[in-house]
Specification:
This protein is α+β, with helices and mostly antiparallel strands and 107 residues long. The protein has a single domain, classed as PDZ domain (Pdz3 Domain, Roll), CATH 2.30.42.10. 25% of the residues lie in helices and 30% in strands. The two termini are 24 Å apart.
Length: 107
């Protein structure tokens, strides 16, 4: 898939992107060159904070919103401690690959 994502965790990660842990968000860990994620402008250390203008703090939040999405979507993020946004066209699940939801035994 095009990008590796994870829920922001710990003060070190939060400090790296210029937010507090309480703010939360989805950290873009890696972006595969030439992928759809790279084409729409995602970069490593981007912090996804909104999806279709709704706040996201965890991968579960993002997963719920991606399932509801159709057509183009707007993703708000922090980059270099400043606000930015990217517009995504097409199947969002191919741009923002998300892990399968955790089962009760995995939580």
């Amino acid at each position: 898939m095009g990008a590796t994502l994870k829920t922001l965790a710990g003060p070190e990660e939060a400090s790296a992107v210029g937010v507090s842990v309480e703010v939360g968000g989805i950290l873009v860990v890696d972006v595969k060159p030439g992928s759809r994620a790279a084409e729409v402008g995602l970069r490593p250390l981007d912090l996804i904070q909104t999806f279709q203008w709704k706040p996201v703090r965890t991968l579960d939040d993002l997963q719920t919103l991606v399932k509801e999405a159709a057509g183009s979507v707007e993703v708000g993020l922090r980059r270099n401690q400043q606000g930015a946004s990217v517009r995504m066209e097409g199947p969002v699940g191919k741009i923002l690959p998300l892990p399968a939801p955790a089962t009760a035994n995995q939580r």
